[in-house]
Amino acid sequence: MIALVAGATRGTGRGIAVALGEIGATVYCTGRSTRERRSEIDRPETIEETAELVTAAGGTGIPVRADHLEPGEVAALAERVDREQGRLDVLVNDVWGSDHLWSWDTPVWKHDLDKGLRLLRLAVDTHIITSRFLLPLLIRNEGGLAVEVTDGTWEFNQTRYRENVYYDLAKMSVNRLAFAWSKELRPHGGTAVAITPGFLRSEAMLDGFGVTEDTWREAKADPAWLVSETPAYAGRAVAALAADPDRSRWSGRSLTSGELAEAYGFTDVDGSRPQVWRFITEVVETGGEGDPAAYR
């Protein structure tokens, strides 16, 4: 299996890349942060580190620096995969890189315009550019899988306003892209889905709360944090889809890692099956007193 994870440097992208490695895939791990140069986010994680984790998990990790806003760089990436592998079986669009660009609960007239538009370019344009150059390789053989990674399902997001207009548009747009790709891939036997993790214990989130993966329960966060998940959970969701010969039944859907965990029987690294979106809907938003442990 040949896979490419765009935005594999950290978080969900890294979790997906490593999980694909666990099922033996060769994974191209792309992003802007390398050991020689960091991206504007200025965090320590690198694509080389992710590739090494993929290889250690049993696959073959190949780091390739690429700015997915630059069509020339993405075209060169596609040409390299074609030259080296001759095909692509799984494409994951997980480029984000916008945590530093948006403000919580900020109306459009108060939000920095340049930052908001930059967020949309990083969160949406990158996915379109990547698909433009990689999908032709994916459809070369029937059965390809395209995965769009977002925050919140289509159904959840369409009835809620997500923080500010830029974030809201970005996350809804990515869900819609998966639906669009499902229509364009169907004549070629391909499948496209959107996947959302829940409350993610990413490297940045753990740092932000001043905790580690070993001490995450000590974070002073809202109740949904107690139903949080590791990046491996969404990673295992993508790996399960990639290994499923009948995955076309999911095509066009907007899915959660928890939903796929129930369908395929996998768990997070601690053996639990977090269902944070249900917890938010049934407990947090209703003011109820449900036990977070019951949603794990």
UniProtKB/TrEMBL annotation:
- State the coiled-coil residue ranges: none
Superkingdom of this protein's organism: Bacteria
Under SUPFAM superfamilies, the record lists: NAD(P)-binding Rossmann-fold domains
Q: Name one Pfam family in it.
A: adh_short
InterPro entries from the entry? NAD(P)-bd_dom_sf (IPR036291), SDR_fam (IPR002347)
Listed PANTHER family: DEHYDROGENASE/REDUCTASE SDR FAMILY MEMBER 1, DEHYDROGENASE_REDUCTASE SDR FAMILY MEMBER 1
Q: Please identify the protein, giving its name as recorded.
A: SDR family oxidoreductase
Q: Which organism is it from?
A: Actinomadura luzonensis
